What we know:
- The chain is an alpha/beta fold.
- Helices cover 47% and strands 11% of the residues.
- It has one domain (50-273): Glycoside hydrolase/deacetylase (TIM Barrel, Alpha-Beta Barrel).
- Strand 2 (76-82), helix 3 and strand 3 form a beta-alpha-beta unit.
- The chain starts with a helix and ends in a 7-residue tail after the last helix.
- InterPro entries: Glyco_hydro/deAcase_b/a-brl (IPR011330), NODB_dom (IPR002509), Polysacc_deacetylase_ArnD (IPR050248).
Amino acid sequence: MGKEFPKERQPMKSALIRRLGCIGLIAFASLAYAKEPKIRTPFLEGWEQVPLEQMERQAKTYPDVYWIEGPGESKVVAFTFDDGPNPLNTPPLLKVLKKHGVHATFFQLGMWVEKYPDLARKVLADGHVLGNHSYSHPYASKLTNTAFWENEVAKTQAIFQRELGFMPTLYRPPYGEITDSQVELLRDKGIKVISWSVDTRDWLSARAMNGDAQIEGVVTNYVHPEAIVLMHDGGGPRDRTVEAVDRLIGKLKEQGYTFVTIDKLIGVAPKLAPPAEKPVAEAASAVAVE
Length: 290
Ligand SMILES: [Zn+2]
């Protein structure tokens, strides 16, 4: 038996070494692939913007909850459109996206889904992904957590449930502004917070009126693998955004980019599991379905 002992030990030892080596490799690989989440578009003075450092810090503090870009380096880009549904802007935008065969993510306001449920259903029917963008677009830091949750997020989740039959997994904070304890509150509800890495500033009135080339320019200058691009289909006339999107899709495809929705970019289901009658602590781990 003594003869066999070293024989058996040897493979075990080398298996252990292999395993340790593997762990080392994985650690090295994750170091190599872990990227610092970063907003690429520079800070815009004079518009009471959330400091980029704050958004980047929250992305680093709450990995797997708060996202400003995808986790990897794939040549994909996620277009996002906020503040709809809007009867003037959303239909022409849907037409352009359909023409190019591209799916995007729409962060809609509860107040507008309530008012234009058919339009929200049309966005969903076209294959796009819908997220919650609050009920009334408040500055969240001015609200108590209870008011933030009940009057803005949960209220909108309930409107989605009523009008569209599901509750979104994804939440975009208006202005990109959200406190740490509000991020933690959403985390405990199984909701992901989605900001952006590229802000087209299509919300600036000069661009909303005649800045299609500027909107296009921002995206082509700052696009990067797994970018999340902020645009709008509500909050004012968005003809320029729609025109820019029409040209951008072809341009980015030429550069080798494909288009993804946010759920696919970060690897979550777009719809939350229906709220079972569970205590809050358990609901936190509610697994999204579909
Ligand atoms: Zn907004």
